[in-house]
Amino acid sequence: MDARPRRQRIGTGALMADTLDPADWEAYRKAAHALLDACVDRLATARDHPWQPMPDAVRAGYTLDGVARGEAALARELAEQVLPWGTGNTHPRFWGWVHGTGLASGVMAEMVAATMNANLGGRDHGAVEIERAVIDWTRGVMGFPQGASGVLVTGTSQATVIALAAARQRAQPQVRTRGVSPGLTAYTGAGAHNAARKAMELLGLGHEALRAIPETDRGMDLDALRHAIAQDRAAGLRPFAVIGTAGSVDLGRFDDLNALADLAQDQDLWLHVDGAFGAWTRLADAPWRDLSDGIGRADSLACDFHKWMFVPYDCGLVLIRDETAHRAAFAARPPYLAAQSAGLGGGEPWFCDYGIDLSRGNRALKAWAAIRAHGADGLGAAITRCCVLAARMGQGVTARAPMRLAAPVVSNLCVFTADSRLSPAEQSARNTRVAQALQMSGEAVFSTTSVGGITCLRAAITNHRTTGEDIDAALDAVTNA
Ligand SMILES: *Cc1c(COP(=O)(O)O)cnc(C)c1O
User: Model's pTM, two decimal places?
Assistant: First the structure.
């Protein structure tokens, strides 16, 4: 039975639904249970479902005609036409870009979050307490001090904007009233993620003001960094921030964060760390945990729950050491949002004072659920496993010469070329072709990146479902592609 809204005549004679709720809750319950079964089946058989290109007929079927079909028909369509056509990052051999795998606990959390439909912009209710608990726990994991503030955001891209806005605010206290004054410069490694450039652009500083510092195996070359800062100061510019990387997107490299913290202190610069995935090596075993030593000394940190903490999209976090600087950049409470001493309008501080959004979804619950379900130990063990598997892939590449590593495996990234005997141009073409072929066949998902002018195959292992056999089979597939 389709659950269509009941209709009734109101005074004007116009036809109006009296509510958008299902007309028959029992029919809804049955349809929703069947859909939940389809979701659980899908996760339980994730290994059977790699990414596959979407048929045109399915794509065309998504077109909206504005006609009401009711929840029961919707449930069937969700299970049959929507559920199968995701990114495929739930599959154990998905290592493209940096994609989290998702968690069964996330399905439970998202169901409850949608039911509560809480707005986490502020006010006095349980959902904001869940977000506080997530931030508090992460603050401890990262070694940030008690007074540090934070807010959950879409991801590291938005977290970077918020962090650099706080840094800009410290450098230019009048920025909110008068706008940006020219001359601010920032510094980051040449291998830093584009999110930092984008943040500089959005903050009105321009990405030319973000200096790309050459890197060694141990991240940014500190002599080159000091030199660039001195040069800018001599030119009358105003260095304000240095952006370290914990886990670079291409090669999984880590800056020496203690050295950067010392330098930032000496130079009176704001130290921001992009720890999108790599920050979570804090939960891993040695030697990988050591890579992020010093991360707790940063002025701000951006990291994602949706990558290496496996939480369903989207969920990132910014932590800021100096809560005053954080609030100075964002807090604003017009009369219609005035703080109240009691009632639903209480519950200070409100998260809307710590970021861009006023209305905010419940990203917190799925992160909280992951930590409750698996604990620091369970998540840490999965993170360690990813590093062990990346090392295995590295060894597998070396053992399959002329396959060759493009760079040493540091953490959870393995970047390599399928045939090092070919010319650079031929290697690029071959690696691109291999990545596409394996994606299309469903054998494995590698992405590509350029190292030393050669387009290489790249695996970022943030996948708790990957096994050692998956690694070996995927390398065999590269050989045979
Ligand atoms: C993914 C990533 C980003 C961007 O984060 P989003 O969550 O995708 O916005 C920034 N830096 C690094 C190192 C990343 O891997």
Answer: 0.95
